[in-house]
Amino acid sequence: MAEPQGVSVSETPPPVLDRSFVQEYAxxxxxxxxxxxxxLYVDGVLVxxxxxxxxxxxxxxxxxxxxxxxxxxxxxxxxxxVGVIVVTSVDEAKRVAEHRYPGSGGLWLDAGYxxxxxxxxxxxxxxxLRCSFCRRSPYEFRxxxxxxxxxxxxxxxxxxxxxxxQEAEDA
Length: 171
What we know:
By secondary structure, the protein is of the alpha+beta class. The chain has helices at residues 90-100, 115-126, 154-170; strands at 16-17, 20-27, 41-42, 45-46, 52-59, 65-75, 81-87, 109-110, 144-147, 150-153. The chain is built from three helices and ten strands; from the N terminus they run βββββββαβαββα. The strands form three sheets. Strands 1, 2, 5, 6, 7 and 8 form a six-stranded antiparallel sheet that branches.
């Protein structure tokens, strides 16, 4: 994305971006340049100036924050991540951001989210796709089968197949 001419990112990011729990964010404007001496490539494409930055904690398979696994997310106007840098702390993320975007240091805002916001985000996004048997969400299993208002995950399907095989063997 080229440097902006009055472009602005939407107010606040959602609590979850790229399977990570947003802690702080910064909205950049035309007054915050991109340091052209820094490089971040995604799929061979250079990520240049972006209107939004977010610092987030990675989430594990159950949607719980992973301590000390931080991400500096480079986001478009709608808070879609277009590039990620892995860092070890919020302070390191801010140092990297300040180097890439001089003047961004004073723009950071606390996102104000806690784990209940993360849980609600996943429920809103995936609640209707929970396994009808074990109640796990899609981010907790690899595959599922859906039909007639029911969903069964691969683990439950495997247990069902094993039970049916055992019944057939016992008969």
